[in-house]
Each structure stands twice: as structure tokens, then as C-alpha cells.
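Homework help board

Subject: predicted structure for assignment chain

Our instructor gave us this sequence and asked us to write out the predicted structure in C-alpha cell form, then describe one feature. I got the C-alpha cells but I'm not sure how to describe them. Can anyone check?
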Amino acid sequence: MENNFIKKIKIKNFFSIKNEIEIDFEADDYTVKHHKDRVFQYENRYYNKLISLYGANASGKTSILKSLVVVGAIINNESSTNVPFSIKNKYAHANSKTEISINFVLVINDIAQEFQYLLILDSNKEKINYKISNEIVYIIENNKRVTFLNRKDKKISIDMDGDTKTILFDNLKDTISTIKEFEIFDKDTKILPSIKRFLGYIPYLTNINSAFFTSFGIKEQDEERLMLDIVNDDNLKIFLSKFFKSIGLDIANIDVEFKLDDNNQVVGVKNILLYHDVNKEIPIEYKLESDGTKMLFKVLIDIYLAKQRGSALVIDELDSVLHAMIVPLLCKLAIDNNVQLIYTTHNIYNMKFLYADEIYIIEKDNTHSTKIIEPKKQNNIKGYENFLIMYEENLLGGLPHFSNIFTKIEND
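My C-alpha cell output:
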């Protein structure tokens, strides 16, 4: 079965990333030979289902994830008032444009095809929201790019009335995505609606909220949507209950409490209810559960929905409130269900369960430039080493820089 997945990301001048970085998710020979279940195949090459971003605090890991979330939000036209002005911090180049490029494979009409989406954003020192300078969609054929859409050149390869096309381009606001504006006209190739579904669904399946900050658990604005998913999908409830049981949580059943009007008619959904084995008659509201249970609940639902919708899953600080031994189980859950999981983590324990091509270490140098360290590219690494030990011995990089450690607070 073919799957949708991301192959490569390039980012320049975005949030804390001022230089251009590239992360290529191509798998190495060892993983392809010994662990084919952990990779996607496209043509004659293989790409990882699991991408783990490691690094010290403030190294830029979250900025990489935000690039995917911001692209999805812009394509959905849902964040024009939330994107931070200039979408960069003070270390970036204030007057230079922001560029985000994503190479990905989509299955359209049962045929897998590679695309590249390039988003260029204007940026300056003024306190304004983003402005789209250009959007380009390339179809990649035989390693060559064929332009399907170029916003600045007013070019788009779909069959539509020329006057309508001209009017739409001429009146396109600089905060509205070309894909958002034109996808309803692309009924033949289905490329634009497919891109919108794939990239545009990423902001729904993440714990980076609409203001582009990380939250742990279900985002408030998503609770009602997730309640409806639970109401309408018995398989989701069964899946959640089975996983909870498998890791020793005593959640026996999951249900939803409805909102009722004065006539006792259902008018909406109110709460997610979790029934525990200790008392199967009295539920606990989701909001009253522990942070770890809420985060686990969120991640499990996102993996389930990512599988259903053929989307990639982006999670910041996956290990933040979860037990270290649960993280490799969630990674295996994603792998076994062909869900591409891209996440940041400080859980070095999980390195024991990863291979060289699934680890990316993010560092900042003394000029605040971002550096990507890829163990798979180091000549002395075979692919199956214990990367926890190697990381602890500083053979991979990405350790916090300790010097003259301060541990005593002096009184005046």
C-alpha cells in the first residue's frame, strides 16, 4: 500500500533558524536491509517513518516542527492574526525573506507522486503579520522539477477559465494561500486539494497550538472535534481502551457527555468521560486526569487520525509528561500503522530503540547558527549502535554545554 509522507525539509530565516538548514529523511542501507517495516518506499528509494529531533534546550528543535505547522496553518488560512510578526526572533535576519521548502510524496488516484512546496514570506522589522511573497508547487519527475503553480508569475496548470484565473490572481491577498484560493477549481489533477489535505491537516494533529506554542494534552479548541470523533467512531474507543490496558492503565471505557437544552434534547458535546476499573460506574472527566494521561490520550488519538487521513504527525516534546518507557511503544505504534511521526524529545533513553537514520541532533553555534548532526552520515557508524551510550559519551554532539556549574544561592 502506498502512503503519504514527507521526504525532506529546508528552512531558512524562520523563528530561531537564521541560516538555511536541510533535513533529509532518506533511510540508510542498514535500516532498509534489516528493518523495512520502519521505512516508506518511493520508486527505488526509502524514507523513514520515524524522525527524532534531539538537542539541548533552545537549540531550535521546535522551530523545525513549527515550519510544518505554519505552512499548514497558512494553507488553511487559519492563522493570519496569530503568526508572530516577522516569524523570527532577534537572532535572525530581520530584512531577509523566510523560506520553507517541503518535499513530500502523495498518493493521488492510487498513483504515488513527489511534490515540492516552497513558501516564501516577506519579513521586516515592523510589527506586522506574515505576508506571502511567493508560493511554488513543483511536480518532481525523474529528479527534475516541473512547475505546477507559481504565485508570483501567476502560473497554474489547471483547466479553468482564463478570466477567472486572472481575477483570482489579481485579487489574491498577501495573507491568503494560493492553494486555499484555487483548490476548488482543481477537479482534474486533484493536486491542490490533495496538498491542502496533507499539509493542511498537520496543524490539527499536533500539540503546537494556533498561537504556535506547545501544549500538553488536547488543545481547547480541538476538544469538541475530538469528542465528536469519539462519538462517531467505536473503533477509536476500542483502540484507546486496548492501548491503555496494554500499558497498565485501568481505563475500562471511554464515553462522551452531551449538552442538553431545557427540553432535554442534545445540542452538543460537553465532556470526554473516562471510566476506571476501580469504579466503573462513576467516570472522571478528561480535564481532571493527570497531565500524562491527557498527553497520552492526545497522542493516541492523533496517531489514529493520522492513519485514517493519510497525514504526517508532528509532536513537540513527546516525552515531556510521559514515562520514558511509553515513548518507544508510541513510536512502534506509529511505525506499525504507517504513520510518519516527526517529534522533538529530550528522552535519550529512547535512543536505545532507534537506528542511526532516525536520529537528528540539533545544535546552535556561538553565532546562533543552526547545525544538523546526522549519525547516519558518520563513517564510523554502522546503524545499529547503542546511541544512548554514544550520546552520553558525547560522540554525537548535542549535549548541553556545562561549565562552572552554579549550585549555591548566596545570601546578601
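Reply (TA_rk): Your C-alpha cells look well-formed. For the description, you could write something like this. Residues 220-294 form one domain. That's the kind of observation they're looking for.
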